[in-house]
């Protein structure tokens, strides 16, 4: 653990490592990625043990939702880093036809990744592969609320990665506050909205860009065309993994009364099938992270005026809240005002798609939106008439496994995105580059910009600079014509000089 007072030195060491240029070569980035993958492969059991201590996370969830997610992300970086780093050549206009125009991906410098406690391994190290691929030095701040995982990350990172380029800072509010006083080139934060505002305010002092992966109340809409058996399975799984402590967990359901009855019946049956008659004894359910969060969830249960259809059992000593389904909830109840972040699922009755869309649009933009329906018009209505960070049709959470889809929020649910190449671009500056030679043709095309200014020069510049949609084959012909004219002019100059 790095104590307060030493944090400036930590950041300075990272900046010195970055300025040395060591992080820029492809070979160096590749070696760090390979070492990161090796770290995950060689320490699977230790990671599962730490997650078990912090959240009593089942082995399958630890491996599939944290470790394997990280492995696949790093594998994707290794497989694609060379193409990601390559300069990207862009289209040109007539004036720049003979020039080189491209985007070059520059590393930002020293970046801070602030992880969260609910998926303490995946959310602390998930952005790391892309940050390495982009050529940055990284300071990692795991959540102190998952101490076993935080300690393991602090132990493993210096064993496998460059000690100066990648450092871990452990600690609580005091250390985090002091760390945010330092200047970074990017801050990547995963956590709650209130803390996200604090992070952004601190970043503003240095004009530091931020990625904020927050959360919110992710709604679910279900209509009568959905396969209720499959819908209940997919929805209940998404709600119960990590005992509901997932930023994109289904937060509440919108459906008709008729659908509600069928859904509750199916979920009641599934809970017994998956977790037994006493779910608290099941090895397949996590626990709430700590007493404070357990009390918050318990108060939501106590304050509801709705009907508890399933569950409701709780045990403070075991940090246990049973998978719970509530109907007939009031819209002004606490359970419908803030993100639940636990295994409690309220169901709100709506009569139509339009009513559901209006309900969603009156609230903060969610991190994701789930629609269970076989009706294409219904699916399209939610896609085009609502705003959310992401949307999944007829399933939940599985979109995180698709690295070609960016993951991130909008409005109150966050800003920026990542996963796959999107993490690489998040931690890169897209530098615009134009390269030009001293040819006579190029100078002829551009000479009208020079004084003395005249009306005919304005006309020529306007003609040459006009934005036109040029078919690709004409662009090639135009390029060859310009090349030939340039060669001809150069040859004539050489002949007569």
Describe the model:
With 497 residues, the chain is an alpha/beta fold. Helices cover 45% and strands 15% of the residues. It has 18 helices and 18 strands. It has helices at 7-19, 26-42, 44-55, 59-85, 122-125, 128-133, 147-160, 173-179, 193-204, 228-240, 257-275, 291-303, 353-361, 376-385, 421-426, 440-446, 455-465, 472-496, and strands at residues 88-89, 100-107, 110-114, 137-141, 166-168, 186-190, 210-213, 219-222, 252-255, 307-310, 314-315, 320-321, 324-327, 344-349, 369-372, 391-393, 414-415, 428-435.
> What percentage of amino acids are in beta strands?
15-25%
Number of strands: 18
Broad shape? globular
Helix content: 40-55%
Question: Which residues form runs of ≥5 with pLDDT under 50?
Answer: none
- Class based on secondary structure composition and strand pairing: alpha/beta
């Amino acid at each position: 653990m790095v104590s307060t007072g030493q944090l400036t030195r930590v950041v300075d060491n990272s900046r010195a490592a970055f300025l040395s240029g060591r992080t820029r070569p492809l070979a160096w980035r590749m070696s760090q990625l390979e070492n990161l993958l090796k770290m995950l492969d060689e320490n699977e059991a230790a990671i599962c043990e730490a997650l078990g201590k912090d959240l009593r996370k089942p082995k399958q969830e630890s491996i599939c939702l944290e470790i394997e997610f990280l492995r696949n992300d790093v594998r994707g970086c290794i497989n694609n880093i060379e193409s990601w780093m390559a300069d990207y050549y862009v289209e040109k206009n007539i004036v720049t036809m003979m020039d080189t125009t491209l985007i070059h991906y520059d590393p930002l410098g020293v970046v801070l990744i602030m992880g969260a406690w609910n998926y303490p391994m995946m959310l602390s190290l998930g952005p790391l592969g892309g940050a390495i691929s982009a050529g940055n030095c990284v300071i990692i701040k795991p959540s102190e609320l998952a101490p076993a995982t935080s300690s393991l990350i602090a132990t493993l990172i210096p064993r496998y990665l460059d000690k100066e380029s990648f450092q871990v800072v452990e600690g609580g509010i005091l250390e985090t506050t002091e760390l945010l006083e330092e200047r970074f080139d990017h801050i990547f934060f995963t956590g709650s909205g209130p803390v996200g505002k604090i992070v952004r305010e601190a970043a503003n002092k240095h004009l530091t860009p931020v990625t904020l992966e927050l959360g919110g109340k992710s709604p679910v809409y279900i209509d009568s065309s959905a396969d209720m058996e499959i819908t209940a399975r997919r929805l209940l799984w998404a709600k119960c993994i990590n005992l509901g402590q997932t930023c994109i967990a289904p937060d509440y359901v919108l459906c008709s009364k008729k659908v509600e009855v069928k859904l509750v019946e199916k979920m009641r049956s599934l809970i017994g099938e998956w977790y037994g008659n006493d779910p608290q004894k099941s090895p397949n359910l996590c626990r709430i992270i700590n007493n404070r969060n357990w009390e918050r969830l318990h108060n939501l249960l106590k304050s509801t005026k709705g009907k508890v259809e399933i569950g409701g059992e709780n045990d403070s000593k075991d940090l246990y809240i049973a998978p719970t389904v509530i109907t007939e909830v009031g819209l002004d109840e606490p359970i419908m005002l803030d993100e639940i972040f636990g295994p409690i699922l309220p169901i709100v009755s709506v009569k139509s798609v339009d009513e559901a869309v209006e309900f969603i649009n009156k609230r903060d933009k969610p991190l994701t939106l789930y629609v269970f329906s076989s009706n294409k018009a219904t699916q399209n209505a939610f896609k085009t008439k609502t705003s959310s960070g992401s949307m999944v049709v007829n399933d939940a959470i599985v979109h995180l496994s698709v690295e070609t889809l960016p993951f991130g929020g909008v409005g109150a649910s966050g800003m920026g995105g990542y996963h796959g190449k999107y993490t690489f671009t998040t931690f890169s500056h897209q530098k615009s580059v134009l390269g030009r030679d001293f040819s006579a043709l190029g100078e002829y095309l551009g000479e009208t910009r020079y004084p003395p200014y005249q009306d005919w020069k304005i006309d020529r510049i306007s003609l040459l600079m006009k934005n036109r949609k040029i078919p690709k084959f004409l662009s090639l012909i135009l390029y060859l014509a310009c090349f030939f004219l340039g060669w001809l002019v150069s040859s004539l100059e050489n002949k007569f000089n």
